Known about the structure:
The protein has helices at about 25-50, 55-60, 65-70, 75-100, 105-120, 125-130, 140-155, 170-190, 200-215, 215-225. The protein is mostly helical. The protein has two domains: about 1-75, Arc Repressor Mutant, subunit A; about 75-225. The two termini are about 30 Å apart.
Amino acid sequence: MSKGGAGEDPAPRLSRLPPGRHGLPREFVTRNQRDRLAAGTIAVVAERGFNAATITQICAAAGVSRRTFYAYFSSKEECFFAANATIAEHLRIATDAAAAELDDWPLRVVAKIGATLEFLAANPDLARVSLVAPQRAGEEVAQRYREAMDRAVEYLCEGMPPPPATRSPSKAIAGSLIGGIVALVVRKVEAGEGDGLPELLPDLVELFLAPYLGRTEAVRVANEVWPAS
């Protein structure tokens, strides 16, 4: 995907509103402008990183004025958090749908990780904004990122059978699992191979499940996903 400059439209499907008194419902106007600001934030932060991104660049990419920006957000950080919340909302919809019909917990983990990889592969800029940029930003952003990673572990563990069917790794080990998953995803995205993210599925499944099921069972599940050659 080409990123282009700040003057290009980062989200052509989010049409700019007509100038003047357009008579559109206020709720529609608000949603449209907030969506455009989220899309503008994603485009600019993906290209420049969080620290180098400016409100002026975000407004230009979104096709709105600085006055409109400040009608919704008090700072770049607040807008960035809103953009990430939008990404998380759409990702949760995709992963919930993928796992909805599955009762077996390991297969639900497979479905959720697989849907996440497909979601990010469709637009690797979303990985740059939600996984790369926060780790290189200030403490407030980094803390929000760490909290989001903790929630990701909890989400993947939803419906997990209690011991002895599963093991209970420490919080530190659980945190390292998601850190390892993120590192592999980020490495592929930064190598320009974001569209190949689904290829990571068996490795990520094994990595996450091993502390809970034991390595032998985790490898078995991973091989069912993508049989070893």
